[in-house]
TrEMBL record:
It is an enzyme of class 3 (hydrolase). Belongs to the DNA glycosylase MPG family. It holds the Pfam family Pur_DNA_glyco. SUPFAM superfamilies: FMT C-terminal domain-like. The keyword Hydrolase applies. This is Putative 3-methyladenine DNA glycosylase. Gene3D superfamilies: Methylpurine-DNA glycosylase (MPG). GO terms for biological process: base-excision repair. Keywords: DNA damage, DNA repair, Glycosidase, Hydrolase. Its EC number is 3.2.2.-. The keyword Lyase does not apply. One of its GO terms (molecular function) is alkylbase DNA N-glycosylase activity.
Length: 219
DNA sequence: TTTCTGATCTTCT
DNA sequence: GAAGATCAGAAAC
């Protein structure tokens, strides 16, 4: 099967203009493409929406940081966290309602060498490949920060429209049977941890291990 | 295999 | 000033 058949046609804006907890499981098996790298999504989390979601960045209202989440659906929301990581979301719901789906993990199905090079960092830097343990294929995009690195997503991509012709699109891929979709509490969130808005493809090796929120100790 | 901890800085209170 | 939608490596088991 050729790559074209594998990733299918791009999804249109209507796909994203729904509640995030409806879009999230529907995104499993879809393919996020950025330039030469394509990732088949295997794990996602829904945030925000019309109701109150204390775990969402939009819970306390609009701010310069989360403005994209209140914008047009189908755009990319990239944020910086823990002082060193980027995470990527796809905006859902019509404009004015802060809602998005966090891309937590996936399988790299094209551009694996580019993704691996990004994960390893510069060849002559302190994290040179020779000084690092090898990265298994299943770990290339296993976890939200790793996925962002593999796809080359950084701050400048915040607000990118993924529903127009360009290097960044979400393709139909192959939807997953409802029976193969797992659901459970979201990873690493303190508030709203009981809401089962984390969705993954059952038995898929690229799904990241669940970690509950652990309050950090003061130094 | 599981648990713990340091790294690092933006955002919000 | 404190916490955070994390990760990698070390230590413990």
């Amino acid at each position: 099967m050729g790559e074209r058949e594998l990733i299918g046609p791009p999804l249109d804006r209507g796909f994203f203009g729904r509640p995030s907890d409806e879009v999230a499981p529907d995104l499993l098996g879809r393919v996020f493409v950025h330039g030469p790298v394509a990732v088949r999504l295997t794990e996602v989390e829904a945030y925000g929406g019309p109701g109150q979601d204390p775990a969402s960045h939009t819970y306390r209202g609009r701010s310069p940081r989360n403005a994209v989440m209140f914008g047009e659906p189908g755009h990319l929301y990239v944020y910086f966290t823990y002082g060193m990581h980027f995470c990527a979301n796809l905006v859902c719901m019509p404009e004015g309602i802060g809602s998005a789906v966090l891309l937590r993990a996936g399988e790299v199905i094209a551009g694996a060498e580019v993704a691996r090079a990004r994960r390893l960092g510069p060849a002559d830097g302190p994290s040179a490949p020779a000084a690092r343990r090898p990265i298994r294929d299943r770990d290339l995009a296993r976890g939200p920060a790793r996925l962002a690195v593999a796809l080359g997503l950084i701050r400048e991509h915040n607000g990118t429209d993924c529903c127009v012709p360009g290097p960044m699109r979400v393709h139909a891929g192959r939807p997953v049977d409802a029976g193969d979709v797992g659901a459970g509490p979201r990873t690493g969130v303190a508030a709203g941890a009981e809401t089962p808005w984390r969705f993954w493809i059952g038995e898929d090796p690229t799904v990241s291990p669940y970690r509950r929120h652990v309050p950090r100790r003061r130094g």
